[in-house]
Amino acid sequence: MKIANHLQLVLLVTVALSVVTPVPAQEPKTFVMAPSQLTLMPVPASVQLQTGRLAITDAFAVATRGFTDDRLRRSITRMTRRLAGRTVITLPLDLSVDESSATLVVQCERAGSSVPSLNEDESYTLEITDKQARLVAPTVVGAMRGLETLLQLVQSDRGGYYLPAISVRDQPRFPWRGLLIDIGRHYQPPEVLKRNLDAMAAVKLNVFHWHLTEDQGFRVESKKFPKLHSLGSDGLYYTQDQVREIIAYAADRGIRVMPEFDIPGHSTSWLVGYPELGSAPGPYKIERGAGIFEPALDPTRNETYKFLDGFLGERAALFPDAYMHIGGDENEGKQWDRNPRIQAFMKEKGIKDNHALQAYFNQQVLKILQKHGKKMIGWDEILHADLPKDAVIQSWRGAASLADAAKKGYNGILSAGYYIDLNFPASQHYLADPLPADSALTADEAKHVLGGEATMWGEWVSPETIDSRIWPRTAAIAERLWSPRTVTDVNDMYRRLAVISYQLEELGLTHERNYPVILRRLANNENIDPLRTLVSVVEPVKEYRRYQMRPQTMLSPLTGLVDAARPDSDEARKFAAMVEAFLSDAPRYRLNRSDLRDSFKRWRDAGTALGPMIDRAPALQEARPLAENLSEAAIAGLEAIEYRSTGNAASSEWRVAQLTKLDEAAKPKAALELVIIPSIRKLVIAAAEPSQPR
Amino acid sequence: MKIANHLQLVLLVTVALSVVTPVPAQEPKTFVMAPSQLTLMPVPASVQLQTGRLAITDAFAVATRGFTDDRLRRSITRMTRRLAGRTVITLPLDLSVDESSATLVVQCERAGSSVPSLNEDESYTLEITDKQARLVAPTVVGAMRGLETLLQLVQSDRGGYYLPAISVRDQPRFPWRGLLIDIGRHYQPPEVLKRNLDAMAAVKLNVFHWHLTEDQGFRVESKKFPKLHSLGSDGLYYTQDQVREIIAYAADRGIRVMPEFDIPGHSTSWLVGYPELGSAPGPYKIERGAGIFEPALDPTRNETYKFLDGFLGERAALFPDAYMHIGGDENEGKQWDRNPRIQAFMKEKGIKDNHALQAYFNQQVLKILQKHGKKMIGWDEILHADLPKDAVIQSWRGAASLADAAKKGYNGILSAGYYIDLNFPASQHYLADPLPADSALTADEAKHVLGGEATMWGEWVSPETIDSRIWPRTAAIAERLWSPRTVTDVNDMYRRLAVISYQLEELGLTHERNYPVILRRLANNENIDPLRTLVSVVEPVKEYRRYQMRPQTMLSPLTGLVDAARPDSDEARKFAAMVEAFLSDAPRYRLNRSDLRDSFKRWRDAGTALGPMIDRAPALQEARPLAENLSEAAIAGLEAIEYRSTGNAASSEWRVAQLTKLDEAAKPKAALELVIIPSIRKLVIAAAEPSQPR
Question: With contacts defined as CB-CB under 8 Å, which chain B residues touch A555?
C-alpha cells in the first residue's frame, strides 16, 4: 500500500486511518486544486480532494441533526464567530431549522462522556460538496474536532471565501494528547490558560495537565488546609471557583483537565504552611531559585497520610478527571537521609533505599487515590512492582522506557522529546514518536502506549511570554500524536505550521503579537527594526543552559532579550536552506546569491545601527557583543559570496581569520545563540576551496 | 504670576497647584536636563527639576514610613515589578526595613477611604535627590498617584536607568475623573476591564463608570431576578463574584466603581425575562441593532417600583460606591404614547408630557436609592426641579449645560467632548474643559463642577479592538481633568502621549499590539507592509457615520479595515506639519521636501501593491478604492512638489484635474477617511500659484 506522508507532494492524500489497523488507500476521484493549498494540522487520517467549492456568504447557516446539546451549540457558535471574524461577514448565530438548505449540517449520535475521558470517541467524517458540508460524528467531541478541521479548510480568492469540496475521514492515532503547563514556578492567570485551551482544541489536543504545585508555589485554594495556598503562593493561586471555571471551559472544548500535585518532593511550598509534614524541622520559605530542592514529605508518619487523605479527597471532589497525577519525580531523598527517625523506620520495615521508601509512600498514596475513586499517574520514578495495572507512567526518560513499561503491562505516555521549555526546534519534537516504527512491541503491548504530552515547565515564562514558548511548536507535537505515524515530512510541517500559527492569533494567542512589545520596551520605543533583525536570527540556548549562563530567580523580570527571542528561528532555517541551495548550485553559485547578499547587508547594517541604540537602552547592554558578532559574521558571509561569485578561491589566511571570528560569534552570549553561524561557516569553507570550472 | 503651560518650552515647570487657590510660582533652583525629556502625563501641579540623579540598580529598595497597609504594599509591589520589567533588573520585592538606606521611602498618614470616594485626598509630593526618593502623601491613594509619577520619571542612558533629581507637588484639579465602558452592546471579559483599570490608574483616573445594561444586553447576575441575566445576555454577563473581584481590583488602584443601570429607556434586555415591566405587552427579544429603541419601563405601575426596589437593593449591596447611575437618557416615550393606561395615568395625575412622566419616575427611583443609601446620578435629562441637591448630572450636552446646573446648585460632570467612541482626535478632547477659562461661574458655583468622564460606548468595539478606541486618547482627557487648566499645548501633549501610550503596553494594554494582528488576518498573513501604509493614513469616519455608511448589527464581526484603523492618525498629523513647514519655507521649498517625496512614493507604491493582495483577500475588497485613491493622491502630491521645486507653476488644468481627484479621494469609503487629503490639496493649490522669486 502506498502511503502518502504529506500534503505537499501528492495530489491525493490518503493515509492510514490507524497505524495498528491500516485501511487500504482509496482511489483518487478528481483533483481540482494543488493540495499544497491545504494547511490542515494535524493531518487527518484520510483526505480526498474533490471538484467544486462551497461558498461562504452571509447566508451561511448551520443545522444539526440527531443528537444536539448546549455543548454542541456553543461549539458551533464559536466556530461561526471565528469564521465571521476571518471573513468579515455577518453570519447568523442561531441554528437553522431547515437541514436541506443549511450550508453545514452537523450530525452527532450522542453527547459522549459527560466528563471528557480517555475513552472518548473523537472520530468524525467531513464531506463537503458544492451544495453542502456534512460533518458526522458519533460524539459531540468528534464533531468539535471536525469543526476545527473545517475552519482550517477555509480558502479565499477573488470570488470570495469558500470551502473546497473534500472528503475527510479522521480519528486520532493516540487517545492521550496533552499539554502540561507548570504554573507553580510562575503563576499564569486564568485568561492565559483559557486562550491556551482554545489553541489546544484548535490542534486537537485533549488533555490539559495542570501542574499545580511546586517548590516555588502552591497555586490552588484548599478550604481544608488554607495555609497551603495562603502561605505558599504569594497570593497567586486559583480559587476553587476559578478551577471549576477552567474545567468547564476545557470540557466545553472536549479537553480533560488532569491536576498534578507533585509529592513527595517538589513540595517546599506545601511546607511553608505545614512544616510538620516535612522530613526536616523547618521553617520553610517559598523557594525562589531554579533546580532540584531537598524538601520532601515525611513518608513515615501517619499524619502525612491523614493529611493527604483529606487533601486529595478535597481535590478528587474538585477535579472530575479519572486520573490524578502525583508527580513523584526528582526526589533525591536528602532530607530522608539526614532524618534519624526516617532511617530507623526504614530499618524497621526493611526498606532498603530511598527508591523503595518512595515506593512505600506511593503505595499509601495509591490507596488514598483509590478510596477517592481516582487512578494514579506519575513520572517514570513511580514504576514499581506493586503499582496496579491501571496506573499510568509519564515518561521523561523516553520511548524505550515507555516500551519497557508496556511490556510489563503498564499504560504510558511520552514526554521525553516534548520538553518545549528546552528551546529545541519544532522539527526535533516532531520526529519524537511514542511508538516508533522500529518498536519491538506486539500490537497488544503497543496499546499500552496511550500518547504523549508536551511539557511547558514554568521556570522562565511569564504571562507575556508563555504563548511564544508553547506555540507554534506544540502544534507539531499535536500532529505527531494525532496523525498517522508516516506523516513525517519536516518541510511540509513547517509550511503548514506557519499558517496554523497565525490562525491561532484569532483565538487571542499572543506568541506573535507580544514579540514587538518586548522589543519596543527594551529599545525605549525607538524604531525596533535593527533589533528585530538581530533577534530574528538568535535563539535562546538549549536545554538548561539559560539558567547556567544567566542566573535569575523566580522574582526576576522575564523581559530581557532572551525572553523576546524565540526557540525556532524561521529566518535561520530559511537562510540555511538558501545557503545549501547556493552551494549545491556550484559552479554557477547563482541560486539565491542576491537574496543572500541582501540578508548579509541587512545583518551587517543592523549590527552597526544597534550600537548607539544600545548606548541609550541599558537593558540592551547584553546585546552588544551579539550585535558586533552579527555584523562581523555578515561581512564574512558577504566576502565568501564574492569569492564564490568571482571564482577566486579565498586564501587560507582569510579562511582561518573568518573561522576564528565565526567560532567567537558562535559562542552563546546573553543566553542566546546566533543560529546562522553554521551556515556562514559552510560558505567560508567553500570560499576557500579551489574554484571549479565555470 | 508666570504660568508655564507645558514642559517642552520652559526649563522650570511650575504651574498653579489649584485653579481656585493658586500658589505663587517658586524660583527655579537648578536645571540639569532639558525638561523635554520629561514625559509626565498628566502634568503635575508643580514640577521642579534639580541637579543629580538617583540610579536604579539591583540594590533598589523601598521602605515605608508612617501608615502602611496591604493595599500600599501591593501597590509598591506592582510598581517594583513594572520597574523591574522595564529595566530587566531583578529587584527585591520585600520592603526594606532600613529607611535610611532605602532608595525610595513612601510615607503615608492614613489609609484614606476604605471604599474609594469622591472626597479622597489624592495629593502627594515626590522629592528625588541623588541619595533617595521620598514620596509623601496623606493617603495611600495619594501615594499610588505618586508611584505612577515615579514610573513616568524613569530615564536611561549609557550609565544605566535612573530617576532625575526633582521636586513634584501634585494634586488633581477635579475630584471626579472617569472612564465609562459600555459592556451592554458588546460584552468585555473581566481581563479587559482589569487591564483598562490598570491603564486608568497609570494616568490617574479614579472612576470606572460601568455601564452594565443596555437594550442589547443585561450583563450582571441578579440572584433576585435571574431572568434578567439568563435571558437578557446571551450568556455573556458578570457573576456577582466577578463584580466583587473587579471592584476589589479597582479599589486596590484607588478607583471607584460606579454602576449604571439605564432606566426607564435602554431597557429592552430587561424585558426579555420580565416583559410585565414594559410599557407595551411584549414579548421582547434582545436588541441586535444600533440606535435608540422604544422599550421603556412602565412608570405607572407599583409593580415596577417594587421590582426596582428589590433590584436596586440587591445592587446597592453589591456595589459599595456612594453613587448609583440610573441613566435616564434617550427615552423618547413612544411606548408611553401608545399605551392608553399610561395616558390615563398621566391625565389623572396631571402629568403634562413624557419629560414630566420621566421626572415622576425618577422621583420614585430616587426614593428607592435613598432607602438603600445611594446618591443618584443620571444624564442631563434627569435634571428637574424636584431633584435633590446631592444628585449629580452627567452632561452629554456640554459645559454650558453643566454651568446651568451648577448655578442651580447641582453637581455635575462633563462628558460632552469626551465621547471617545466618535473617533475624534485626542487634540479635540484635550481642549474640552469642564470649567473653561471664560466660565461665568463664581468660585462657589464652580465647585459644583466635579470633573468629567470619557465615554466608551460599545456599539463597535470587541475585546480585540476596545483598547485602541480608549487608548491613548483617554490619557489626554485624563490630563485635562487632573492638570491645571493652563496646560493646553497640543503639540506637547502629543509628544508625551506617544511615550505614555507605549508605556501602557507594560500593563497588557493591546491598543498597539493588536493592530498588526487584525491586518495579518485581513491579508491572509501576507506581508502587511502595504496594508499598514494605507491604514496608517486613514481614520474611521467621525460621529455616528460608521453605522450609516456600513450598517452592521451587534452580531457582526468587528474585524474589518475600519476596526483596524485608529481614530487619530499619527502619520497624517506629522504629514500635515511637514506640509505646513514645506509651504512656509517658500520660496526655497526645501524644508521636508525629501521626506515628503519619500512619503508620497511609499503611498503610491503601497496603493499599487495592494491591488493583487486585495484580489486574494475578499475581506479587503472594500479597501480597493481607498488603495487607488491613495496612489492617485500620492502622485498628485509628488507632482505638486516637483512644480514647487522647479519653480514652475502648474497649469490651472492640472490644478483642476488634481483637485477633482482629491475631492473624490476625500470621500469616505468603507467608513474610512483618507485624512492626508486636506494637506495634499494645499500642496496642489500652492503648486499652481505663480512662482515666487528664488
Answer: 90, 92-93
Cα–Cα distances (Å) from A259 to A195, A203, A243, B287, B600, in that order, read 18, 21, 10, 42, 58
Q: Is B330 a catalytic residue?
A: yes
Query: Which pLDDT score is estimated for B93?
Result: 85
A60 — phi, psi (to 5°)?
-55, 125
Asked whether the beta carbons of A266 and A329 are under 8 A apart, the reply is yes
Q: Does A623 touch chain B (CB under 8 A)?
A: no
Short-list B392, B481, B477, CA closest to B427: B477
For A440-473, what is each residue's pLDDT tens digit?
999 999 999 999 999 999 999 999 999 999 999 9
Across chain B, what does the average pLDDT equal?
A: 93
Helix (H, G, I), strand (E, B) or coil at A349: helix
Are residues A77 and A33 in contact, defined by beta-carbon separation less than 8 angstroms? Answer: no
Residues of chain B in contact with residue A90, where contact means CB-CB under 8 angstroms, are 552-553, 555-557
**What is the tens place of the pLDDT at every residue in B238-281?**
999 999 999 999 999 999 999 999 999 999 999 999 999 999 99
Test A88 with B617 for CB contact under 8 angstroms.
Answer: no
Q: Which chain A positions have a beta carbon within 8 Å of B552's beta carbon?
A: 90
**How far does chain B reach from its first CA to its final CA, in angstroms?**
45
C-alpha cell at B92: 527585591
What are the φ and ψ backbone dihedral angles of A394, each rounded to 5 degrees?
-100, 120
Q: Return the pLDDT at A244.
A: 97
Averaged pLDDT score across all residues of chain A: 93
Q: What is the DSSP letter of B621?
A: G
Residues of B in contact with A58 (CB under 8 A): none
Q: Is the pLDDT of residue B11 over 50?
A: no
Q: CB neighbours (10 Å) of residue B293?
A: 20
Residues 6 or more apart whose CB falls under 8 angstroms from that of A679 comprise A572, A575, A576, A579, A580
In sequence order, the 6+-apart residues with CB closer than 8 A to the CB of B537 are B569, B571, B572, B575, B603, B630, B674, B675, B676
* A·B CB contacts under 8 A: 123
Test B517 with A525 for CB contact under 8 angstroms.
no
Q: Sign (positive/negative) of CA torsion A247, A250, A254, A255?
A: negative
Q: Which of A526, A190, A552 is nearest to B84 (CA)?
A: A552
- Cβ <8 Å between B157 and A616: yes
Residues of chain A found within 8 Å of residue B619, distances taken between Cβ atoms: 86-88, 156, 161
CB of A37 within 8 Å of any CB in chain B?
no
- Per-window interface: B 183-242 vs A, CB < 8 A: 189, 191, 241
Residue A286 C-alpha, separation from nearest chain B C-alpha, in angstroms:
13
Binning pLDDT at 50, 70 and 90, where does residue B691 land? Answer: low
Taking a contact as any Cβ pair under 8 Å apart, which residues of chain B between 551 and 580 contact chain A? 552-553, 555-557, 559-560
| Beta bridge mates, A238 | A220
- Residue pLDDT, tens place only, A651-669: 999 999 999 999 999 999 9
Sign of the C-alpha dihedral computed for residues A683, A687, A690 and A691 taken in this order: positive
Q: Which of residues 338-397 of A touch B (CB under 8 A)?
A: none
Looking at A447-569, list the stretches that DSSP marks H as alpha helix, in order from N- to C-terminal side.
466-470, 473-482, 490-504, 514-522, 529-535, 545-549, 561-564
Q: Are A56 and A70 in contact (CB under 8 A)?
A: no
Is pLDDT of A614 > 80? yes
pTM above 0.90, yes or no: yes
